[in-house]
Queue: 2 jobs
Job 1
Amino acid sequence: MKSSEKKIKFIDLFAGVGGFHFALKGFGECVFASEIDSNAAKTYALNHPKTPLFGDIKSEFNQAMIEGEFDIICGGFPCQAFSIAGYQKGFEDERGTLFFEIAKIAKKHKPKVLFLENVKNLRSHDGGRTFEIIKQTLENLGYVVFTEVLNSATHANIPQNRERIFIVAFLKEKVQNYAAFAFPKPVKLTKKIADCLEKTRQDESFYYRQNSRYFEWLEREVVKFETIYQLRRVYVRENKSSLCPTLTANMGTGGHNVPLVRDAWGVRKLTPRECFNFQGYPKSFKLPCVANSALYKQAGNSVTLPLVKRIAEEIVRVL
């Protein structure tokens, strides 16, 4: 897209905290956003206050608020139904069927591009049948579908081991140059875990102290600085890859513990801010006054911002 041409318009579905919005805002305007989680919506509104933000995308009223023409539908549609960490029910789970809300909106508005993200396991779920249904649905609507599994550590210069599948679909009747699209190539990982950690003492609530039943255990096991550890039920795991493990939406709940680090003041959990650092969000990114558990969920649900931006650049180049 040449600088002299009209800026793109996009809508942000399953918007979370607005990772796709941050990635695309340099190329155009977000004209509609939808997010059902009230805490995530607070974060989104705080960072994107001018964007019309609505709730449940299944609502006919909310879908009716999508007006006129726009160029791109973007969004990371709910992945729990397809995730290895979940029950893998796919389309049998209501969250899995939300993909068809995207398809319904695409059928009505015919945007030039769909830019979607999900867990790596989407490709292999149910022997590949789930993904084939998604691909066939888009092709039946006239889209040419490109897919790739990319890792934040290899394609975004972010020290987190995070593999996600990206789906980019171009409407053939509106984008004749679609064959020129290519996913970004790998880049050298130069950022380290230390680059994502805060340098000052954090709130006392993040530290394990002597009144914790884990204190002596963690003091003995978590010994290295600038290294990520994970507390399991019967052991402490040191991540020797020099990467943060995949951040998940259920951090801190049901035995899914927040990754640990040692700093000059003791052993502690990563803070929500640090989790967003491991997703590549800028220091200017604002966090609302909500429970830390909600912020951990938002960080785990989010996209890795620099990776989405790199793909967005390739999409815009083709338009």
Job 2
Amino acid sequence: MATTQKAAAPKAVKKSQGFTGIRGAFWIIFVCFVAAICIFNFVLGDPSNFQGGDTNNHPLNMMGTIFKGGYVVPIIHTLLLSVLCLSVERWLALKTAFGKGNLTKFVANIKASLKANDFATAETLCNKMQGSVANVVLASLNAYKEMDKGANASLKKSQKVAKIQQAHEEATQLEMPTLQMNLPLIATMVTLGTLTGLLGTVTGMIKSFQALAAGGGGDSLALSAGISEALINTAFGIATSWCAVISYNFFTNKIDKLTYALDEVGYSIAQTYEANHTDEA
């Protein structure tokens, strides 16, 4: 009996519901830059922070001292604010990716359902959990059911298992860009924070040496301003890199945890199919 059968198209992975990240990270940096300029000019540069209400005079408090750090200060503040904003953005995105329940418990329940051949329960768990792991598991379960259809009856068991694994890997690859989005930018700011702080340190020390060279003894006000610029920029550069390193490693670790869960469930689905089916001759 000759029948024309269309190849079953793989079902699309269900999109994660909720916040999945900001793709236009440039706008985050731009807003942070504007905020840093405003803070530098109107908060740190407020006349009340300096003797006689003149920004050229000696600062009266810490905000005035930070202002003396010079033009590099708003640049470093832009980087620091960007790291903080991107960290919040990544936290919200990964919270959505992990789903609405406990990831470890979800993986255990899925494995228990697979062991009992209860795929209806597994799909229900995925629909309740949502998130990236649930999306990938659903894609793998759909591939599992596709292999049981008549259109794939001519395939060997090893080929069917390979197709299930392929569906799992493709679904994982669809989710990974959302998980890793903006992390390279945070990693870049680890280096930029240090280098920008070093730039401010160098410019501050140049001013200090210029003050020492002027008139032999040097102007104490110019000397202190140069040292302040050097130390303030060093401090903020280190703080920026510190925050960026912690943020990057924290989110990378969370993504690794999610990836391990995906691999574990994908392996279980493939092994369940292999155990429940015999290879047709």
